[in-house]
Amino acid sequence: MLQLIKRCPEYTLEYKEYCRELHDNHVIYFRPANPNSIDENWFARTKLWYDKKEKGLIEGQPISFHYWAVDDGKFIGEFQLRTEFSDKVLSGIGSIGYAVKVSEWGKGYGTEILRLGLQIAKEHGMDKVLLTINDKNAASIHVCEKLGGMLEDSIEAYNDAEGHHLLKRYWITL
Ligand SMILES: CC(C)(COP(=O)(O)OP(=O)(O)OC[C@H]1O[C@@H](n2cnc3c(N)ncnc32)[C@H](O)[C@@H]1OP(=O)(O)O)[C@@H](O)C(=O)NCCC(=O)NCCS
Residue 138: inside a domain, yes or no? Predict the structure, then answer.
């Protein structure tokens, strides 16, 4: 059964493999950690940074919570939740980031991660979330619409990986 769990050291090497697959497949819509930087000490090295993010103590970054998706002990993907509607969230990164290991695509995991993630957002006291999705990212648009995403608009955006692109902004009411 798929579960969203808090990051934990036991899954570090599987997380690295997941990052490696996204990296090697040139996935541009979601950028995980650089797989080359992940070793057996990576979890301990980054823990404080993630703890600070949850408390909003990283300058310029919204409060955010990071979860890993595992199915019967197998690493599947990740889910990130940003609980504030800062300018950065509204005009670019949205409330949610999620991704599935490339070799596990098309098995229903993306839908399940987002569905479980919406429950977590509710538990954080949110009554709606914003998903911002590159208009070329048909799989994510499909998953978002399936789970109730209502299109507000499309805005222009830019980052190094995606270049100039259009972001569709979807609200999901919880
Ligand atoms: C988006 C993503 C999470 C989907 O994960 P997944 O495990 O393949 O998702 P699911 O198997 O639950 O569902 C995918 C759905 O999209 C559909 N889909 C896939 N590619 C599609 C395409 N090119 N056009 C339209 N629909 C598409 C599938 O048919 C499926 O629909 P169904 O459930 O109605 O049959 C995954 O592709 C991913 O990790 N992408 C890179 C990271 C990313 O884009 N994250 C989202 C950023 S906003």
Answer: no
On average, the pLDDT of the chain sits at 97
Please report whether residue 33 resides in a domain: yes
Residue 161 beta carbon below 6 angstroms from any ligand 1 atom: no
In ligand 1, which atom is closest to the CA atom of 111? 12
Domain that holds residue 119: 2-126
Q: Which of 130, 113, 142 is nearest to 172 (CA)?
A: 130
On whether residue 158 sits in a domain, the answer given is no
CA of 97 to the centre of ligand 1 (A): 13
Tell me, what's the pLDDT at 55?
A: 97
Whether 138 is in the pocket of ligand 1, judged by its Cβ within 6 Å, is yes
Q: Is residue 152 part of a domain?
A: no
> What is the Å distance from ligand 1's center to 40 Cα?
31
Mean pLDDT of the 151-173 span? 96
Q: Using one digit for the tens of pLDDT, what is the confidence trace for 5-43?
A: 999 999 999 999 999 999 999 999 998 999 999 999 999
Q: How far is the CA of 163 from the centre of ligand 1 (A)?
A: 21
Long-range pairs for 159-165 at CB < 8 Å and ≥24 separation?
159/92, 161/28, 161/31, 162/28, 162/29, 162/134, 165/134, 165/135, 165/136
